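Model: You mentioned two targets. I'll fold them one after the other.
Researcher: Yes, keep them separate.
Model: Target one:
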Amino acid sequence: MKKVVFLVLAAIAASAFADRPKYVFLFIGDGMSVPQRMTADEFSRKSGGGPLAMNAMPFSAMTRTCSSDSLVTDSAAAATAMACGVKTKNHYAGVDPEGKPLVSSAAAAKKAGVKVGILTTVTITHATPAGFYAHRKNRGDTYGITLDLADSGFDFFAGGGLDVNPKNALKHKQYEACGDACEYVRSKGYKIVETKDRFLSLKPGDGKVLAMFANGSLDAAIDADGSQPTLSEMVAKAIEMLDGDNGFFIMAEGGKIDWSGHGNDSATNLRDILALDEAVKTAIAFQEKHPDDTLIVVTGDHETGGMSMGFAGTGYALYLELLSNQTMSVSKFGDKVTAAFKANPNLSFDDVKPIISKAFGFKFEGDAKKDKMVLSAEDIKGLVKAFEHDIEFYRAKIEENSKYDGVKRYLLGGECRLVMSHKCGIGWSCGSHTAMPVLSTSKGRCAEKFSGSLDNTDIAKAMKAFYE
């Protein structure tokens, strides 16, 4: 009799999951909308890489992104909508507008016996990943979010650090009981891994994992030196660790796309999109081995920067191939210039020319009509002005110019990225999020559910239905 009951229950369970994909990949490009995807696609084509894999998927949908209290969403509200299927306020993660906890698709998968992985290129407690496991009214509550991470029971986390603020932690009544955030995570059965070598050597029998490769976010793809795993490598390891009889749910975020969008750093932005696409290709390779059981969805949480493909100075032309000349992010370039200031207080513009040329590929001599990387007199004038400002600002920061009352940030990196964008034909309208809809594409089992015109909550509703 017991055997019959068991077989009946097994048949019911099998029937319940018959119409759902066994393996689900949800890729989120933070700050990635249509112009970002198209710019990276065109760059990839011109550099011999062909179209982006994410753009070649058979199903697509324009996706509305607003939050419950603003047409322009932030990442926390957008992630909550995509994860939980409910609109909430900006800065809220995993809770509704009244602050009540919500159930995410990842949590529904876990409850159904499916293994869950959450991956990102920024801090693992950042807004987008937090939307899938946390329940906080303040996305900045990284200590509380860390507690939620540990309490989620999810099987695999990988990305940057926890970004826990000790002052923030002291506000929590749980602090005395939990002590150090990492110790609390360990107390919940997680193995904490902090190097690439240890990460790549993980085996499926190693249990629950929290892998962190930096104190903050991971390096931008353009700055990567191989010491940290790529998002593609994280996805590959997640597949290895999570594959099993009940399948898995993996959310993987290209988080640094948003950061370079805020900085209007075109070359850095598209390199992180290409890195996300490499992770998508890893999922596609898996899907090709499991064509009847795998769903892949690629989307964005919002657009950042107001990017446009076209600039008045280039007419109807785009020269996206010029972006290959940039070898580092504007942020890393700024660090190098600051280090040069520190090493030589009497630094001149001629001294920084080699740094500028190495970082952006600009040429200070030559025929600008024959070589687009040659700077015009107007370009150089703008760079010199920004450099002179930065020298004064640096002297004020080290208390050598107490009378300084100018702009309190460095400007040379920004001027360089502006020149680069204009040469390529890329425009930016702002340094913040916009209300532009994002593009969602999908492939595999049940992919047709993610086509047409969607609200971002529809993504969660469809995925949660797989596990109910």
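Model: Target two:
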Amino acid sequence: MNKWLLFFFLPSLACAQIDSTDIIVRQMMEKQKIVGLSLAVIKNGQPVTNKGYGLANVELNVPVSSETVIRLGSVSKQFFTTAIMHLMQEGKLSIEDSVHKFFPDAPETWRPITIKNLMSHTSGLQRESPAYNNFKIQPDIDIIKAAYSLPLVFKTGEKYQYCNLAYFMLAEIIKQVSGMPWQDYIHHKLFIPAGMTHSYLTDFYRIIPNRAVGYMYNRDTLINATAMLGIRPSGGFLSTSSDMIKWEKAISEEKIILTKENWEKLWQPFIKTSNRADLKEYYGFGWLIDEYKGHKLIVHGGSNIGFRSVYARFVNDGLSIIILTNTDEANPRAIANALADYYFRK
């Protein structure tokens, strides 16, 4: 009799789990006024949630699904650091190489800057190039060279300061060393091996099936987000929650793309992000290393106009949470934390 009772009770437990996740997400979407959200939760290597909430397109009343294509923003940075590590693994560069090897006309003050300084936001370069323009498509090298005249903000390696310009330089290095556009190298060497068939460059003009529209608020009025025509290597890709589950599999298994040793270099603490004694956050190579309520956390957020995302890996708990949204005011990190609280209690 007990066996039959258990048989009937198990589906109820499954529904309770799904409903609890849904309740948390929907409540926080309402609080943050999020239009659409795609969620993946992976526990011990298995997806337990992969679904959409809300709308990908308000005007056409198109719902978000697990196949909705959404801008990742700076969650993309890990693809560039992984690509650099792959080129190093192929013997084509070293992360100890000076940027002068790739930019010989760069100012002398840039000579101490190495690839690993670019990857870890410790270069001392200005956060943005003066030439970058959201509304202009232009070569990465032009944006990089426009920064040659700017002084360093601090001595190279001295501290952490987030730097998108550095990732333009990483993209250009990938292009130079591989002999192909950086987006093609990442597609062929990372996305294809991982099985990611619906991850794309953030090309505003290309027709991309299932692409979500970005939204923002003008006071309390929902409007279409300002279009970003320029392509930023620092936030260069769109993806789906289904594709990101495949990427998580590649990362967690550490069997393809990179060796186990090279995968783990990406999330080794490289530089503390703050001098505050109470903060334990470090930056690695394209990832933040932190703690959340005593749980080790490897994480990165993303932000483009009209889009906010987060990829949180609670590695000692076997829990990963990926949230992609199409609303400028969203705070997906807060939602990931709330979901983590729930899964920690289970």
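Researcher: Noted. Anything on target two?
Model: The chain is about 35% helix and 20% strand.
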